Amino acid sequence: MVWTVRLDSRPVTRDQVVAVARGAAGVELSEPVLKKLALTRQHVDALADAEDPTYGVSTGFGALAIRHIPPDRRTALQRSLIRSHAAGAGPAVEPEVVRALMFLRLRTLASGYTGVRPETAIALAGLLNAGIVPVVPEYGSLGCSGDLAPLAAVALALMGEGEVFDGTVRKPAADALRAAGLKPVTLAEKEGLALTNGTDGMLGMLVLALADLHRLLDTADLTGAMSVEALLATDRAFAADLQGLRPHPGQAVSARRMFAALQGSEIVASHRGPDCTRVQDAYSLRCAPQVHGAARDTVGHGELVADRELASAIDNPVVLPDGRVESNGNFHGAPVAYVLDFLAIPTADVASIAERRTDRMLDITRSHGLPAFLADDPGVDSGYMIAQYTQAAVVSELKRLAVPSSVDSIPSSAMQEDHVSMGWSAARKLCRAVDGLTTVLSIELLSAARALDFRAPLRPAPVTAAVRDLVRERVGGPGPDRHLAPEIAAVEELVRSGRILGALADA
């Protein structure tokens, strides 16, 4: 861990979530938080001793809430809740998603509205700081009553049961806790619900996707500019006076970035004179700022929703400062689910326009002098023909992933939970969509870099040349056909790591 996120009275930030999720930061609970937890716990203990039943404290759960549970069965009640709710199936989700989920649940516990004991919150922080990641299956959450099954898998590990990843090794949770010097937790009244009743999984994936989409949209502006340059298109359409006629903020950002990236290009300057007969470029070139910019504005809306959710305390029931324990519906994932679905649309569309630019560079009837498929010896060599097939396959999949999950609802728990958000499903498909966009932009970058090489001796702009040169550190220039999959993977790593944008900043 490089630094520590201290949980106190302030809302956590998206940057803090990303830092904890991706292993750059640990967590700690402030003394005021621990005192607040102890004070709130006194209210839960008083209700546990009362004769009148209180949901989540002395009753069963969901449709079984009608049963009052005697004190000598309540430890078994909490243990049974976690074991029964840890009912997921399928492959394990990514460790960074689980760490985000754990951190966000800890953040809600630290709010003081859940009624957990301080030692339970400390134990969850210990799990994070030890790098122990519970195995959370892909399927199981309906995005209502929180991400129940995924959160229960985490709570199960906290109890010393189930399986975890300790580094890259999958092992029993009890063994990992013992090796880290951590003790399993015996849950008390209300704690089972407090550990499982939140939108933390879908919110964590939203925050991670927003961070990735910022990077990818910056990358799309860059790859788009390189394609414009390689295809002998004009930068005039990106000028500030034209963009100002339609004042969408995201569009202005993308146009400004693309225009700046092309400054000083001998290639662009070579066809500015009266000899150029083209008066308009294709939409995939001329309208790139409009598409990329609309995606930026959608990301901005997603950030607004995420920040509101990060300022929320989500549990059911909640323990209020005056001691009341009140049921509520704040665990419903609709606000997060809608924006997760929304973001999948521009993710697919930015990939779609990038694929169209790539296809144009490969087609001799539209590429203005580039060799067919950017091949060294067309006919003997196929060049990047099938790389565009890969783009097309991914774009087709992204269109399918853009179909919303949140319009679907399947009643559960004997009709007690009769409308659900499917927010976890919306989040999972957005994660896959972000990966797909990464692949599509990487192939555009690979193609545009080669196309710029073919424009020699004309030199690209300093910015695009710097990015092309970075690609060349991993992937050779034009020549006879090579095994292409590793080259695509190498460029994907450059895009994922942010090194491409680093080269842009340096230039």
UniProtKB/TrEMBL annotation:
Alphabetical GO biological process terms: L-histidine catabolic process to glutamate and formamide; L-histidine catabolic process to glutamate and formate
A GO term for molecular function: histidine ammonia-lyase activity
The entry's keywords: Histidine metabolism, Lyase
Record Pfam families: Lyase_aromatic
Subcellular location: Cytoplasm
One GO CC term, this protein: cytoplasm
Transmembrane segments: none
InterPro entries listed in its UniProt record: Aromatic_Lyase, Fumarase/histidase_N, HutH, L-Aspartase-like, Phe/His_NH3-lyase_AS
Subcellular location, principal: cytoplasm
Catalytic function, reaction form: L-histidine = trans-urocanate + NH4(+)
Pathway: Amino-acid degradation; L-histidine degradation into L-glutamate; N-formimidoyl-L-glutamate from L-histidine: step 1/3
Signal peptide range: none
Top-rank taxon: Bacteria
The enzyme's E.C. designation: 4.3.1.3
Family: Belongs to the PAL/histidase family.
PANTHER family the record matches: HISTIDINE AMMONIA-LYASE (PTHR10362)
Listed name of the protein: Histidine ammonia-lyase
Species the sequence originates in: Amycolatopsis acidicola
